[in-house]
Amino acid sequence: MHKAGFVNIIGNPNVGKSTLMNAFVGEKLSIITSKAQTTRHRILGIVNGDDFQMVLSDTPGIIKPAYELQSSMMDAVNSAFEDADLLIYMVEIGEKELKDAAFFKKITNTKAPVLLLLNKIDLSNQELLESQAALWQSKVPNAEFYPISALTGFNVKNVFNRLLELLPESPAYFPKDQLTDKPERFFVNEKIREKILMHYKKEIPYAVEVDTEEFFEEEKIIRMRSVIMVERETQKGILIGHKGSALKRVGVESRKDLEQFFGKQVHLELYVKVNKNWRSNQQQLRRFGYQQ
Predict the structure, then answer these.
(1) Quick one: CATH architecture of 184-287?
(2) Domain spanning 3-166, CATH architecture
(3) End-to-end alpha-carbon separation of the chain, Å?
(4) How far apart are CA 129 and CA 106, in angstroms?
(5) pLDDT at residue number 79
(6) β-pair partners for 10
(7) Model confidence, pTM
């Protein structure tokens, strides 16, 4: 008997969805930072065993869209409801509700099995944990409840084993040696964007998009050329920094991560370019893979 299915992870921004998926897959596929709205695309992580294939989907955090890019991000969340065999609804200690009532209604009315994960319990105490457990179990009575810490790994294996039990019988959807549905350039872009999220404040990280224009793999080295898009000249200046020092730090840290990810030496060239109001331009959003 072979099992296979799509396990889609949804929740508000910054609840730890990416940390959980990376823990399941065993590879850092999704960006993890302390800033909200880190995940922009729906990213698949594929876990293979002899008799199963679990296709995990990390979606953007649920928000009320303020511009076209955010609307596209919420379209990705909507699509996660359509093909889910199993649904993980992830909340964190202290959270009260989903930021969009329509999405919450979909969770409570879905026919797919739902696992409700209360994350970050390592930051809690027993009294708060018990009250939060009671609150969420009353809000989502159709879900199986699990307290977890995705960061420390507490209860993560138990959740994974339960997902395995619930997977439907099916042949594999992807080749058994495949880890994700995204191409190599996507992960180059995401590693660079992660460093920008870590080192810049306010609007800069959200006004940035990365496009890897060249990716040449040789026997011992991969040569890459990536362009960082910003919306205004002032953002370009901040991103580059005094005598290029800020951009150099992004480049050095990205290269180290990419060498670990690809398992070989990396030569990375970074450039910054102004692409005015790309977040509200449907043509640009399609170019960057946000709209179909």
Answers:
(1) 2-Layer Sandwich (3.30)
(2) 3-Layer(aba) Sandwich (3.40)
(3) 36
(4) 25
(5) 67
(6) 89
(7) 0.65
